[in-house]
Amino acid sequence: xxxxxxxGALVLFLVLLFNACPLLAHGPGGSEGMVQIHDSMKWEQRPxxxxxxxxxxxxISIGPTEKLRxxxxxxNTGRRNEMMLARPLEVPTGWNAAIKSMGHTVxxxxxxxxxxxxxxxxxxxxxxxxxxxxxxxxxxxxKTKDGSFVRTSAIIVEVVSPKTAxxxxxxxxxxxxxxxxxxxxFEFTLELSNRSPKEQLFDLTAQAPPNWTVSFKPAYExxxxxxxxxxxxxxxxxxxMVLPAPNSEAAEYPVKVQVTGGQAKxxxxxxxxxxxxxxxxxxxxxxxxSLATQAAQPARVSFxxxxxxxxxxxxxxxxxxxxxxxxxxxxxxRLVNLKPGELKQVEAAITPAGQALVGDYSVAIxxxxxxAESSMEFRxxxxxxxxxxxxxxxxxxxxxxxxxxxxxxFGRR
Length: 413
Description:
Elements: H1 5-25, H2 33-40, E1 51-55, E2 59-62, E3 68-76, E4 82-90, E5 95-101, E6 104-105, E7 108-111, E8 116-125, E9 134-144, E10 150-159, H3 162-165, E11 169-172, E12 177-180, E13 186-194, E14 200-207, E15 213-218, E16 227-230, E17 234-243, E18 252-261, E19 264-274, E20 280-283, E21 290-294, E22 299-307, E23 313-321, E24 327-331, E25 335-338, E26 343-351, E27 359-369, E28 372-383, H4 386-411
Parallel strand pairs: 2-10, 12-19, 21-28
Antiparallel strand pairs: 1-3, 3-8, 4-7, 4-9, 5-6, 5-8, 9-10, 11-13, 13-17, 14-16, 14-18, 15-17, 18-19, 20-22, 22-26, 23-25, 23-27, 24-26, 27-28
């Protein structure tokens, strides 16, 4: 027969382990400071029975139509299981209040030894109507089922006007004005501060010029968002991307941003300064870049200069690259105030030098604005003058006549 002391020691060990289970199951790790204190107490230091209960905040501010929602923390500080009863103790006139858990109204909660839970006090004006601005006191009562332990907790609720409620939300930026050319994507950095004690979901909207694109993105993500959740007494950073319309002219354009959540609202105005794009194009009506003339005789060609950018060009001058002693004159000599999309005609007279030989020559014309330019290269063919042709023909004829006369005179001999 085996000795019984070993069996007795095993039974004693299991009894001690069973008694320690409640403490192990509800060790430190509660979200509230007082929960952590009680969880850190040694089992033998706990009283046989005990109760603590408190609303999370002693005071809170809400809007006229906003619900009051505040956590009610209940702790069983004793070493035995308890049934706790909870109810609203004090409710202002014109308000409805209830103790809830997971959306359901409750009147009590079962707590094991050294256990705790979080309920919620929910209150709102009767019939869902707006409450008058002012201060309202709410109180709750939590007690054990036999009434041996009773705890009460109160909260002062300040109902603020919509104008005051808006101050709980702030929208700021370090750079409200950005400047650049049309076609550039402008990125603004926004700081959204939720000064209320509650976490809220805020909607983001923007008002920009027609055909402009505005989008919001988190600070370190590339996805587009239309709303943002911000914890109470906290702030969040986001980016606003603004892409102007392709045909936007150089000017200043406002972009208004509005953030709303519950009764809170914040607005901010940003400014985009477009310097415009600078682009011009010089071209002939038919696209041909060749012409013919004679030495010392002007050849005339018409071409157009168009402003293809979004910024006006205050002045367009003409620069030429031509053979030596050639002359080029423009009518008009320069263009003034060429507006975006505008087309103006120019006539050029190209005159070769008097000693120019017959052949092909290259002549370049450049239309040059302060921040844009466009060039054309012409092939100019210099042909012989008809006068010299007739003179040459006369020389040939006279030469033939001379030879004929000489043949007749000397051939008879």
